[in-house]
Amino acid sequence: MTFETSVVVTTYRWPAALHAVLGGLARQRETGFEVVVADDGSGPETAEVVAGAERRWFPGRIKHVWQEDDGFRVARARNLAVQASSGSTLVFLDGDCVPRPDFVASHAGARPGRVTCGRRSLLSEAATAAWLAGPDDAPVPSLRAQIGMRRRGDLNRLPGLTDAPLAILGWPLGWKRFRGMNNAMHRADFMEIDGYDQSFEGWGFEDSDLAIRLQNHGVRLIRPGRGSTVVHLWHREADRRFEGDNLTRLDSVRTSGRRRAVEGLSSLPTP
Fold it and tell me: Which domain holds residue 224?
């Protein structure tokens, strides 16, 4: 079965958060999409979450793409997921970012030559723990509840006010506004630049590299529509020991004008 839109959800060893994210996708007003979980080496608990989501929410429209845990290799995990996907529109979402009901629809502006770049609202540690310990697949809190959370310091910004009201103008954004956890693009553009660069291992800048190469290819980065801002669950910072090496790689693509990945999707074995 093929779909117009594929939502790629990255995850690593946090099944409770993934469950909340998949629950958010199950509540989308737009339903004609598939979900591809890009798993960077999680254990069997994550596979159980995906299997449960298929039975409950996504019969026939969710896939679980797994690779061995060999360090932080999110670029390769995303490429594997795209390889397994069918959609002409690719929506990327992280497995710790809970989408609101219009999330998928908000990225409808992603088409050839245009990439939508969404934002996030950060949830506090305490509020994250309470959410994940609460009712099964709890939805994103109402606006009234969000205002209370903002006043208590549990939410750094209100998602509804973070959505760009001027998105319809299509003003271009700089590459620094691109985040791997919330964006969408046309499959043809992703393939033209050979996807994510898998030479980026360890935390940092694999998404910035993708954005710069998209711009080098002539693609414009724009804001999505309303409903795009996700709620980012709190977690400890990732190990950043390779940040310097990845920043050097990023500087190289910025100065070279290169479009294709050094080690991209085409380097993957044929499935």
Answer: 5-267
Q: How far is CA 11 from the centre of its chain?
A: 10
Please state the domain count of the chain.
Answer: 1
pTM of the model: 0.94
**Which residue do the tokens 């305490």 mark?**
126
Residue 33: its H or E element: strand 33-39
Query: Are 114 and 90 contacting, i.e. CB atoms less than 8 angstroms apart?
Result: no
Burial class (CB in 10 A: 0-12, 13-18, 19+), 27: middle
Structure confidence at residue 238 as a pLDDT band (50, 70, 90): low
* CATH number of the domain within which 24 lies: 3.90.550.10
pLDDT confidence tier of residue 231, bands split at 50, 70 and 90: very high
Residue from 10, 62, 20, 64 nearest 40 by CA: 10
